[in-house]
Amino acid sequence: MKKLFWCCLFLGASSMYASGSVKKHTHAARMHTVQKKKAEKTKKIKKTEMTRGDVKIIEATENIRYLSQKIAKEYLFYYTYPNNAKMQKNLYATLKKLEENLKIISSVTKDEDTQNILEFLAYSKEEILSIIKQKPTSADALLMLDYSETLLEGADSIGRTYAYTFSKEEKMLVATKNIKYLLERITKYYMALYRGYDTQNNRMNLQKSISGLKQYLAEINAYPYPGNLQDIRQHIDKVWHRDDQVLKNIDQYFIPNLLSDSVVYLERKTDAISAYHSKNL
Asked: Are 158 and 46 spatial neighbours (Cβ–Cβ below 8 Å)?
């Protein structure tokens, strides 16, 4: 069943604005309470067997983690280039994928805490839809950063319920999934700083994401891949080294479009490594 999960998983591949701060704060506080109760409950549960429903839920939570960062990044690009219709179209496409994954969890889970968290995530999804229908603004960009973290926290909370000890190949596949998630997260915070949201929290999250990415890349570099994948890994290292230098010079200059293109390339190459580990399960 674990093999089924990872095959499915591979294939599936701040601040608040004054006018909405009370509502947003209440929503976040209530969700935090649900997450805390769920975390305490999860500690008492030890999964002994993966079911087909579990597989679908874990796959969906992994997708939501990635999409939560991607949609905020895309909005910051849309805010930067408001006349680019393609960027708004990309937002709708990402939101649709988010909705599909929320529906997957909702259709499978019978866990009351998970259902409660899904209500909060559905609220966030509707708020995001309302935002992207309008002309992009600085206030809404801040809200998008908030909502992306809400989606991430919710997905993490649900995912912890179904955690188990990974095999070696599963760990490597997890590393590739986290590389893609962190690439989106890094770009999100890079764009946040570029747009003037230069807060200590945003800088801290950016640095944490960079450090996390380097750890997962180290795991990839330590794995004995066959020749063709060694070449891909070397390309990833070369491109990331260049991107890392760009990120280190963030106070001197910004090149968001070049960094975004580079991230697309890195994610595509990472998919090739993911495919290798998926086949080895």
From this structure: no
